[in-house]
Amino acid sequence: MPRARATTAAAERMSEPVYIIDGRRTPFLKARNRPGPFSASDLATAAGRALLLRQRFAPADLDEVILGCAAPSVDEVNIGRVSALRMGCGDKVPGWTVMRNCASGMQSIDSAIANIRTGRSQLVLAGGVDALSRAPLLLSDAMVQWLSKWYAAKGVGQRAALLTRLRPGHFAPVISLMRGLTDPICGLLMGQTAENLAHRFGITRAAMDAYAARSHARTLAAQEAGHYADEVLPIYGADGTLYAADDGVRADSTPENLARLKPFFDRPYGNVTAGNSSQVTDGGAWVVLASAAAVDRHGLTPIGRIVDSHWAGLDPAQMGLGPVHAATPILVRHGLGLNDLDAWEINEAFAAQVIACMRAWDDATYCRDELGLPGALGAIDEARLNVDGGAIALGHPVGASGTRIVLHVLNVLRRTGGRRGMAAICIGGGLGGAMLVERVD
Amino acid sequence: MRHFTLDRLADGTVQLVFDKAEAAVNTLSQEVLTELGEVLDRLERERPQALVIRSGKPSGFIAGADVDEFGAVHDEAGALAIVRRGWDTFERLAHVGYPTLALIRGFCLGGGLELALACRYRVAVDDPSTRLGLPEVMLGILPGWGGVKRLPRLVGAPAALDLLLTGRTVDARRAKKLGLVDAAVPVRVMENTVRGMLRAAPAPRSLPLPLSLTLNPVARRFIASRAGKEVARRARREHYPAPYAILELFRKYDGNALAVPASDPASIPALLRSPTAANLLRVFKLQERLKSLGKDDAFQAKHVHVVGAGTMGGDIAAWCALRGLTVTLQDQSAERIAPAMQRAGKLFADRLRDARRVRDAHDRLIPDVAGDGVARADVIVEAIFENLDAKRGVFAALEKKARPQAILATNTSSIPLEDIAQALGDPTRLIGIHFFNPVSRMLLVEVVVGEKTRADLVAQAAAFVRQIDKLPLPVKSAPGFLVNRLLAPYLMAAMRAVEEGIAPATVDAAALAYGMPMGPIELADTVGLDICVEVGRLLGTSEAPPARLMTLVEARHLGKKTGRGYYEWAEGKPKKVPPGVIPDGFAERLVAPFVAEAHAALADGIVADADLVDAGAIFGTGFAPFRGGPLHATASH
What we know:
By secondary structure, chain A is α+β, with helices and mostly antiparallel strands. Chain A has helices spanning 10-14, 40-53, 79-86, 104-117, 141-152, 155-164, 176-180, 190-201, 205-225, 255-259, 292-298, 322-333, 351-361, 364-371, 391-394, 398-416, and strands at 18-25, 29-30, 64-68, 95-98, 123-131, 137-138, 174-175, 235-236, 242-243, 281-291, 304-313, 343-346, 420-427, 431-439.
C-alpha cells in the first residue's frame, strides 16, 4: 500500500526498522530415495497457514508473500503465489518467488526488507521452501533429440529406422538434483568445493566428523529440551501420518560411526562424506515481517528486528566461505567483533565449510588479503555458534535454510536473553549472505 | 404466455425460455405442460430453423414435476391424466420436424430431464450446480413421461437402470461420458456450442453396438432380472414397490406407463394404492421443512473451530472442511489429531475425487493444538469426552478468546446444556449442535436449545447446519433430546425380547421386516453397549436394565468396537445365524415403545409439532421412511 509520504532521504529509509513478528517452519524431513510425502507448496502451506492463524491480522491484510525456492516443481513455478492462495491469503495478496540458490529463503526476507523500506509494503510474509526429494528425473539430451525426431517422423518406415537407433543409454535419466548441486561455472560438485576448503585450511576428516557429531548431539539436546517446540509445526500427510519433528538427526552419528563412511564427492580418497555434509531434505519456513506502522496498526508484538543484511561474491570454487564475506562487512559497519554477537547461525552445508569459515576469520593473512582487514578477526566462541545444531543434523532443504537460520538465531536470543545475533549462509555459485538481527523485548 | 417466452433469433432459431411465473424454481405443472403444448402448436405453424429450450431461472433448468400437484391427486384417473399429459407432450416434442436442443445449466431432474430427453440434442453446462437424474423412485413413483423409454436408448440399459433404480444424479461430465448429453462445456462456450451443434446438425446420438444389444427383449429380461436381485438386496417389494414397477415398465412396456393394465402391480394406480408413495412424498416435504428451518437467518460461517479430535469432533471438522469452510481442529496433542486427519483424507478422496479439490479441502482443515483458531471462528463446536467439568473448563477458556458474535456450541449428547452454560459469563450464548455418528452419512443435526439459550441463536445455528448441508432440527434441552430418547426404549425393548429367549438375529429380522434400516440389537452393538447403559441411565428409565446387557458390559464385551457384544463381530460385520420364525405381531410390539416415546416427546414439547417428531425419527434414526414416521404411521392405522 503506497504511503502518503512523498520523499524520504535514502539514509532515513535504510534506517526504517523492519520487525520480525513471528515465524514457523515445518519439520525438516530427510529425503529417503523416493518422492517425499509433501510437495513444496504443501510444506509452505502447512507452515504458513498455522503461522498466519496465530497472528492478530488476517491473511488478507498482508501486502505480499515472498517465497524463496531453489527448485520449484514445474507445476508450481511461482510457488510464492501458489502458496499464498493455498494459505487463504485471497486473490488480492500478491505472491512471488525468489531464487538465490541456498540463500533463497534469506533473499525472500531481504526482498521484503527492501519493499518495506521503500514503503511499498508494510506487512510481508517471507519464507523459503524446497522439496528436494521430489526433484525430477530428466530425459538425457540424446533422448530428447531422439524423441523430437520420433514426433516429426512420417510413416512406418521412418519410425522403424529410428527405433533401430535407440540405445539403452538413451533411457538413463538425468538426476536434476545432482545437476543443481554442480557449479555450472567451475563444474565442481558442492561437496568438491568443500574439499577445496579442507585442502586450503588443512581440515582433517576427523575434525569434520567431530563437527558433524556435535551438530547431531546439539540438535538432539535441543529437541529434548523443547527448544524446537514453538518453531517446528507438526504436519500431517494426506494419509494422516504425523510428521512431528526433524527426522534427519541421529543419536548414532558419533565420530566413530561417521569415520566409517566413504567419501562421497572425491572418491575414493577425499574427506567429505554424506555424514559430514548437510542432508538432502524437504522443508519450509516462514517469518512475518512488518514496518513500524504495521506494528502499530495491528497491535503486533515483534520478537526482533533486522538490523542489517549483506550479500557478497567470491570464487565459486570456494563458495563455502560465503558467510565470512557476507558477515564481515556487517561487523565492520557496526563496529562489532565476532564475539560481540550473542548467537551465530552459520548454515552447515558441510562441516569442512563451517570450520573453514572459522579458520579464515582466525587467519591474519586471509583477513588481510581477502577481506581487507588490518588483521585476523579472531576465534569465534563455538558455544555461540549453531548452539542447537545445524543442517548436518537437521538437513538443508535448500530454499528453506536461509529463513530457518534467521528465525532460529532470534529464537536462540529469546531463550538465552542475548541481544544481537547473525545468520549467515554460503551459496552455491560463489555467494554469501548474512543478516544481523536484534531481539526486541 | 405466463411461463414461457419465445424469441426468434436472426438465424431462424427459436429460443424458448422457461421461467415459471410466481416461482423460484422451474417445475412442470399441468398448466406449464398445457402452455408448452400451445408453444408446440405455434411452432408447427411457424416452422423454425431450430428450437432451443433453456431456463430463465438462475436456480437451474427444471426441478421436475410439480410434486404438490401430484400429491394433491387422490384418484387414479387424476393421476393417469397427469401422466398422459406429460407423456403426450414429450412424445410430440420428440417428433417435431425441426431440430431441438435443451441447454441445461443447474439441476435437470425428473420431468425436467424427461423433457430434455425428448429433445434431439442436449448441451449441459459443466459447472458444479449442474445435476441430471430421475429421482422419482425416491418418491415411490416412476418416471412416466418417457424417461424409462428414452434413457436406455441414450445410455444403454445397464446405466439407465442404475440411474432409474437409485435415483442418483450425475454431473455434466459424467452425463457426457454416459451419453446422456451430447456436450458438457464450460459456461464461456455455452452459446457457441448451441449454435455450433445446430449448424453442424449431427445425427442424433445412437448407442454403440454392444449397448444397443441391451435393448432387445431377451436382453431386457436378463438385465431386468439381474437388476431386480440388486434392488431386492436394498429394498423389499412390500415396502418399496416403485423400483420393481420401474423394472417391469422397462422390461415389458418400453417405458409407457399408460400401456400398463391397472391390474399390474407396475401400474400407476397400483403404485398409488400402496401408501408408500404418499409417505415418501411426505418424507420429501419433511426434508424440505427441515431445510427451511435453516433459512430464517442469513448467518454464514467462514471458519469453524472444533475442540476435540475424537470420532465425532474429527468427523465434524472434516465434514465442515469438505463443505468449503475453513476449519481448525484442536486437541491436546498433535498425535491425538492424527487419526482424524487420516479419516478426513479418506472422506475428501471419496467425495471429491478431483485432486485439486481434495488438496483444497486438506488446506482448509488446519490442525490447531494451540487453539489459535478460536479467535477467528464464527462457530465453535465442542466435541470432547462427556465430562461436565472438562466441558466447563473448555467453555470458560473459549469464551475469553472467542469473538463476541461467534456461536458457542456443544456436541454433548448427555450433559444438560444448562449445567455446561454455568461456566460461561454469558450463559445465553451456549447452544447444542448435536451430530450423529457417522457424521458423513447422518443427515440430521439436533439444534439443542437450553433454558437460557438466546432465541436468535437457534436460527443462526440452524442456518449453519444448512450451510454444511445437513438437516437442522431444533430440540429442547432434555435428556436424550429427541433422537436418543426415541431410540433408547426401543433398544431396551429389543434387548428384553432377547432376555425372553428370542434370538438377536430374529429380533433384528423383525425390525428389518418392519422397515428399519438396521436391527435394534445390531444397532446397540454398533453404538456400544456401554453407551446404551449410559443413555439408559441418563434417561432415568424406571425399569432395571436387561441382565444380559449388564453381564456383557461387565465382561467388557461392548459390541462392534470390542469385537463382541450381542453378536460376534468380524471385519466390521456381525456374525448372524439365520433368524428364527418371527412371532406374530412381534415387530409391532418391538416398535411400540418407540411410538409411545414419540408421543411422550411430543407431549413434552421436545420439538414444535408432530411432523418434526416424525422428521427426527426418519432422518435421525432411519425409522422406516415408507411409513412416514412413527406418529404418522400409527395415526393412519
